[in-house]
Please model this.
Amino acid sequence: MERKREKLLTRMTDFIKEVADCVNSPNPSVEVHRLVHYCRIGSTFVGYLGLPFKFAQMEFLSKVNDLDKGARPDDTLETLIDREIQQNLAKKPYSSSRSLIRVKRSIVMLTVMFEQMLTKGGNSIVDAVSKSYEKSFAAYHGWATRTAIFASLPALPTRAKLMKKLHENEVSMTAKMKSFVDSSAVVVNYIDSLFHSRELGQQLLELI
Model:
């Protein structure tokens, strides 16, 4: 089957595994364009959470586009961060380094959501999405934004409706979520390590 005809969750799982394989290679390196391609697929999934998360989908895609615009064709995540730090650009509000951090938080949100769905079971995904938001973005949002997001949670689709939208069944969705969680953990840890190993890294990770 051609990739364009593959199910969305399959594409998400396959592409995040490709990124994780780059990290797990003898010479770990991730091209910016590869991560950008995965994240554009991931942003489509966020839209499947319904109208209340349309803004989150648009915000995710906006940061992905910002990351892409600031990168050179041959950039890896490492060369991009180093160049912006050397040019005193990394802490600028719309730097690619900060966009990368925001993109990473979106990956964390999806990872925690899937983890919660795998462990909790049941037909409601409200608790899974709530916990994923708390562990990814809540600390960086103001009271009004947090309140609006938590107020929108009851409008989330049920697990069964989400599964139907994704054209999955319980067995296939569970297997793909597990694979995604394993691969995304590798990618998130790698991105964190790139920042932690640089002098300004911790400051950047703490910025909104």
